[in-house]
Amino acid sequence: MLIVVATVPAALAGIPFEDVIERQLRSPAFVASWSAWWAILMGIADRQASRPRPGAADPLLRVTWLQGFGIGLAQAIALIPGTSRSGVTITAGLIGGLDRSTAAQFAFLLGIPITAGAAGIKTLDLVRDGAMGADVGVLIAAFAGAAVSGWLAVWFLVNYLRQRSLLPFVFYRLALVAVILSLIGVERR
User: Fold this and answer.
1) Which of 28-32, 111-115, 175-179 ranks highest by mean pLDDT?
2) d(Cα 43, Cα 47) in Å, to the nearest integer?
3) What residues are paired with 99 via a beta bridge?
4) 168 in Cβ contact with 46 (< 8 Å)
5) 113 CB contacts (<8 Å, ≥6 apart)?
6) What pLDDT shows up at residue 114?
């Protein structure tokens, strides 16, 4: 039930603001600055991350309604270009007091309904526009490949975060910002 409630903010924000986000927030400078902001915030959150609490109970069962809703609000923010959905939701979980692994697990579980909903809406758009045609087999194969590779990536990251920090992802985001800014500089010449 917590996943359903935490999905509401992104669903409510995504539908009415999709056009604004697509048209007005896609400039490379905006994406670079927003990416840099979230990289820095992720680094700060990672440094203060709590340690996993020992105990028999599943750590996901210890996620409170307030923590879950806060992560859900972060998922709504992730609609803005330059924000990694998983990065911002994990960061919100850390700020809310979760350990890295639990924050990642909750963030990825939270991504399932919103991603499925967005895929469903886009699929309906394709059907309505008559673009499905004979490509259904290709779409099914792509879905299966994405599901398997996504599951493997989640499994790897959750296990990685049980023992390690998010610092490589912070550096990756900052490197991405540097690349975007250098491309902006080249384009202006």
Assistant:
1) 175-179
2) 6
3) 50
4) no
5) 3, 4, 7
6) 77
